């Protein structure tokens, strides 16, 4: 079976991790896989991408117009990519796999021999933006209509969690006849098992006993400030001579081309300075897999701060590495994290997160017991083998 993947920007994020794992899973299953994208930098991407045939087309097209119109530009780039693949690339496929931007789907149907299209819906795009002004609502109306209309043209729709399935039904009212199937992202555990941990010397002082870790892209919707505020609350309860035993590392995907990444990074650094935590907080941008493994191995727990996250692969990665998770009690973490067993689910308030962090300080054995329970859960629910077979079966049904 020949499967052709189309993805907007092959960078570092949860969506990129999922599509790469999907492509690698199908390649391991014996499929012929090609990956097409509008932007690809091997130096700012998951190393796994080197195991695939990746082609990049249309990166010359604008991402924004003077900082605005990001959605129309993303649609334009994906439509151009789809047209290039169909009419100019000479690439052959039995199935198209696309995600994030559905605008390309009707153009994929223009092929002389139309192929089936599988669309993986991470989350409705129209819910990822604010529309507080009348002008913004008018601007988004045709974009939202187009997203709903083109999403419904896919031959198979998958979502990443039961939470996203419910959001899909409530958002796309005209698609009430569609019941998207849930395919949980898998964890490529072999990567974690084979990676040699980086040396954290110089990043974490040897006197640090309690290391808290936040992993998220530098985006405001990820609410990383919550981790900083909770950590500040915790430090405020300590004596001066205890401070050096506590440290927070904020690690996340960072792209200088994206203004929000640059602005939010500065905002978080300013907040740490304002609260006089410079000596207790380290900011990491676009860290390596080796650093991630080392940090998860060393950390007391992971602070996962986004609300209504569609799925969230970070808690799954943390649990596999036997690192407990403190997450907001909404969205995907409700399906991955078991409260009081593999971590804690809290309201998105600094005081609640602080209280959960305090439990690991008062009872250090929690780290080991919750970590072991977390790894067992990942093996049961998010194994690569189960993911591979389930995805392959969806494609077989499409091509029958």
Describe this structure in words.
The chain is of the alpha/beta class and 400 residues long. The protein has helices at 14-28, 70-87, 105-108, 134-151, 162-171, 189-194, 224-235, 259-274, 289-298, 313-320, 333-336, 350-362, 365-381, 384-399; strands at residues 2-7, 32-37, 54-56, 95-99, 116-121, 156-159, 181-182, 210-215, 246-252, 281-285, 301-304, 325-328, 343-346. The protein has a seven-stranded parallel β-sheet, with helices on both faces. Strands 10-9-8-11-12-13 form a six-stranded parallel β-sheet, sandwiched between helices. Strand 12 (325-328), helix 11 (333-336) and strand 13 form a beta-alpha-beta unit. Helix 1 crosses helix 14 (384-399) and helix 7 packs across helix 12. The N and C termini lie close together (11 Å).
How is this structure best summarized?
This protein has 400 residues and is of the alpha/beta class.
């Amino acid at each position: 079976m020949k499967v052709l993947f189309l993805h907007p920007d092959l960078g570092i994020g949860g969506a990129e991790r999922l599509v790469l794992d999907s492509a690698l899973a199908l390649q391991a299953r014996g499929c012929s896989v090609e990956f097409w994208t509008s932007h690809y930098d091997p130096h700012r991407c998951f190393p796994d991408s080197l195991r695939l045939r990746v082609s990049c087309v249309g990166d010359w097209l604008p991402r924004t117009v003077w900082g605005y119109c990001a959605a129309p530009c993303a649609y334009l780039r994906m439509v151009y990519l789809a047209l290039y693949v169909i009419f100019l690339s000479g690439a052959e496929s039995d199935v198209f796999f696309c995600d994030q931007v559905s605008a390309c789907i009707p153009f994929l149907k223009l092929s002389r021999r139309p192929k089936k299209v599988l669309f993986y819906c991470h989350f409705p795009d129209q819910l990822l933006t604010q529309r507080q002004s009348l002008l913004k609502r008018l601007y988004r109306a045709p974009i939202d209509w187009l997203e709903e209309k083109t999403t419904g043209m896919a031959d198979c729709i998958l979502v990443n969690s039961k939470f996203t399935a419910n959001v899909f039904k409530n958002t796309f009212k005209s698609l009430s006849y569609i019941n998207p199937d849930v395919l949980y992202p898998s964890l490529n555990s072999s990567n974690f098992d084979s990676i040699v941990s980086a040396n954290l010397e110089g990043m974490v002082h040897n006197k640090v006993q309690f290391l808290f870790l936040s992993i998220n892209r530098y985006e405001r919707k990820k609410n990383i400030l919550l981790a900083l505020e909770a950590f500040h609350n915790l430090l405020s309860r300590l004596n001066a001579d205890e401070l050096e035993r506590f440290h927070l590392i904020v690690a996340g995907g960072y792209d200088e081309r994206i203004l929000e990444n640059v602005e939010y990074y500065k905002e978080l650094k300013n907040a740490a300075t304002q609260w006089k935590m410079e000596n207790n907080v380290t900011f990491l941008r676009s860290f390596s897999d080796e650093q991630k493994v080392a940090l998860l191995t060393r950390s007391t727990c992971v602070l996962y701060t986004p609300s209504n996250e569609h799925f969230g692969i970070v808690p799954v990665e943390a649990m596999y590495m036997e690192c407990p998770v403190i997450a907001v009690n909404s969205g995907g973490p409700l399906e991955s994290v078991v409260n009081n067993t593999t971590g804690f689910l809290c309201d998105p308030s600094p005081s609640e997160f602080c209280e959960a962090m305090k439990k690991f300080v008062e009872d250090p054995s929690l780290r080991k017991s919750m970590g072991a329970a977390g790894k067992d859960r990942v093996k049961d629910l998010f194994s690569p083998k189960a993911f591979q077979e389930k995805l392959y079966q969806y494609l077989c049904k499409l091509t029958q």
